[in-house]
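Quarterly update from the structural biology core.
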Amino acid sequence: MKILVTGAAGFIGFYTSKALINSGHSVVGLDNINDYYDISLKYNRLKELGIAKNEANTFNNLCSSKKLNSFSFVRMNLEDREELPKLFKEEQFDVVCNLAAQAGVRYSLENPESYVDSNLVGFLNLLECCRNYNIKHLVYASSSSVYGLNKKVPFSTDDNVDNPISLYAATKKSNELMAHTYSHLFKIPTTGLRFFTVYGPWGRPDMAMFLFTDAIVNNKPIKVFNYGKMERDFTYIDDIVEGVTRIIEAPTKQRIKNNKLYKVYNIGNNNSVKLLDFIKEIELNLEKEAKKDMLPIQPGDVERTWANVDELIKDYNYSPNTSIKDGVKSFVDWFKSYYK
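Predicted structure, tokenized:
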């Protein structure tokens, strides 16, 4: 298949592009390479895919990878209503995998406009392109943050998600509603994936795994919110990508036949880990104790996440299973190597 992967310079988009290429698909990666976090990390991910920095910098110009023949890249904003339809018309994609978004719960308190531009306007533009250019399946990233103040665990896709507590979560819930509308009106198969705290090598610098490791290495205190009384369903990147690629590669004929065009799944480790245990695992791998700055819970944060993945198992015979021990070791080994 020819597949558009948006957010291809991002953490999950980079790995997903790589996995799809290795499976024999032709991939066009799209990213605007914004400066929400260190862009050198984004350029280095693209370098791993065979795209040079000077090529990646050119807006709206498709460049082909010299390393991976079946990968090409375009720097573009999803909300670009003139250029995105041109790309769809030219490339004739079979499937779209939307992993582009303005990420981050806390940042949405500081810069709400960027979430509206990327996550709402950009997503609508993408849906319109899927509608007008005969896309067979839209797979898109949602988030565990849509569960908001949900107290029932583990979180199920049957749970009510009408109470988001951050703008980021609200935009992700909006994406699900918008996708449902387009599935209903225009018969486009759409699949939303609620990711649960993704971590691993090449991960985002604003995520806990990266922040904690970096601080401990540099003898700085780590910020432990809610005085450590947090639990997260930490999910290793390889497990996330395996779920994403299975869903992309699965035929949609049966769903169309059964009129089940709209679906949402949790992708998580189905296990809630205490934040302090997670920190301890990082300390063990670094052979160094963290200096902890215990702080109150931040606005927009939830105390606990835990994914029920029964639907994923039922429909795709898949459940993430990488242990925290193995996952943290992989990240710390990469961190040491990358930052020498």
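The radius of gyration is 19 Å.
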